[in-house]
Amino acid sequence: MQKQNDYIEESLDLKMELGDRRSILVSLINIGEATCSLGEYQESKKHLGKALKMAMEIRLAPLAVEVLIGIASLLTRSGKKENAVELCAFILHYPASRKELQDRAAGLFTELTPQLPPEIVAAAEAQALAWTLEEVLAVVLAILE
Q1: CA angle 3, 70, 30 (to 5 degrees)
Q2: Within 13 Å and on the Cβ side, how many CA atoms surround 105?
Q3: pLDDT grade for 145, boundaries at 50, 70 and 90
Q4: What CATH number does the domain containing 70 carry?
Q5: In this structure, are residues 90 and 132 in contact, taking their beta carbons and an 8 Å threshold?
Q6: What's the CA gap between 108 and 60, in Å, rounded?
């Protein structure tokens, strides 16, 4: 897995030289998810935070949602399950979420809900339905800081 992460880092460097922001964003997401799966949560937080800011700057909603599922996984692994459930619920209900991302969110949501009190899950779902994409992105940035 570390070798794969090295290749992704090299790919990011090349994309930065070329200035392809969308590709840079995809690489940041991949690095963030890879480092999270390796248990390197600070590195994951750093890369996913950069990815989220970039997605907001270039206004790529589908990729912003992809960053959110990575952050939901990170929050789950770092013990912030309530925040992770909110993000999963948002992804499940957000109309621009790709099927693959909804499936990942549904799996994580299903894993987390038995670990939380029902009223917390219900509140998370209600909050997710009320959020706009911009609002959830701002909340997540605050959580990451």
Answers
A1: 30
A2: 26
A3: confident
A4: 1.25.40.10
A5: no
A6: 23
Counting the structural domains of the chain, the total is 1
DSSP 98-126: -HHHHHHHHHHHHHHGGGS-HHHHHHHHH
From the number of C-beta atoms within 10 Å of its C-beta (0-12, 13-18, 19+), residue 145 rates as: exposed
| Residue the block writes with tokens 């499936």 | 103
**Per the structure block, which two tokens stand in for 101?**
């991302």
Q: What is the pTM of this model?
A: 0.86
* pLDDT tens-digit readout, 63-114: 899 999 999 999 999 999 999 999 999 999 999 899 999 999 999 999 999 9
* Domain interval for residue 131: 2-144
